Amino acid sequence: MTTDNMKIPAVALGTWAWGDSGSSGDGYFGSTLTQTDLEELADRAHAAGFTLWDTAVVYGMGRSETVLGEVLKRFARSDFQLSTKFTPQAAGAGDDPMADMLEQSLARLGTDYIDLYWIHNPGDVARWTPHLIPLLESGKIKHVGLSNHNLSQIVQANQILGDAGYSVEAIQNHYSLLHRNSDQNGILDFCTKEGIPFFAYMVLEQGALTGKYNPQNPLPEGSNRAQAYNAKLPQMKSLTDRLGSIGRSYGAEAPDVAVAWAIAKGATPIIGVTKPNHIDGLDRAAAIVLSNDDIVELEALALAANLDTRGWWEQEM
Question: Domain named NADP-dependent oxidoreductase: which ranges (predicted)?
Fold first, then answer.
């Protein structure tokens, strides 16, 4: 095990949308991004104490890492943590594709180590997990995690790492009010029992649970998320309306409540941020303590929506 302790924040900062080109309506999220906004966002996040940034090679095939690396040049490396990922499905054909992909990530991010390095999708657990060990030994990665793995794959990878004196130190899965597979398949219970931090991505379902969108104001046309969610917005309305009303009772907003729900379930949400004011929402969410009645009601409304929001990249858990 590495001797430095991984700092687990209340909320981690996601940069999936930073892989978009920056042109309105273009890319997976249809995000409009400017360097000035992202630098202001980073300054505000730093001041608020949100310092763990999550990215991946496949977010814009390197663009997210490149943009993030440029934005973070304004801080000392010790002032933030970097989380990025090896994706087996995008591996090259060299002798050690994981090491090759890591070197490319290091170059784009402008650093010589990654605080938390994930295997993004399982691929072949027995094949890929051992490649983490020399990277840990070299210090180029400090901690390792698994994303989109089911429970048996997590246990298998943990055994492989354990034989070398390491362990799985984080799990990251799609987890939201509308997608609670990690509750249902025992992964959250396993993480609690083993003391492994659980990171939740897509807590806001790519913006569909923010309350900002509805059938009259759908997600940006031409984006992948519009294709995935616009037809489902009517079924989400009761849930998003209640998120908004609970939020108002806390002096907050609908997305803050969805994030607070994930925190209440024991997760560290990874929340996509593209604008400086997104940080204000994370501050509010981290301060909200939902009542048990709130949690039960929100989960009932989510169940009644009867939606499958599993991503095309996700295996059945």
Answer: 11-301
Q: How far is CA 244 from CA 216, 278, 294, in A?
A: 17, 16, 12
Overall average pLDDT of the 7-28 stretch: 82
Tokens coding 156: 């298998």
Among 181, 213, 193, residue whose Cα is nearest residue 302: 181
Tell me how long the chain is. 317
Helix axes 151-162, 187-194, angle to 10 degrees: 30
pLDDT at 23: 63
The tens digit of pLDDT for each residue in 180-222 reads 999 999 999 999 999 999 999 999 999 999 999 999 999 988 8
Positive or negative, the Cα torsion across 215, 220, 225, 226? Answer: positive
Helix (H, G, I), strand (E, B) or coil at 146: strand
Q: Rounded to whole angstroms, how far apart are CA atoms 173 and 184?
A: 13
Residue 11: per-residue pLDDT: 97
| CA distances for 6 relative to 29, 89, 120, 163, 189, angstroms | 30, 27, 19, 21, 21
In single-letter form, the type of residue at position 14 comes to G
Q: Is 156 in contact with 126 (CB distance < 8 Å)?
A: yes
Specify the CATH class of 12-305 in words: alpha beta
**In the block, which residue shows the tokens 């801080």?**
75
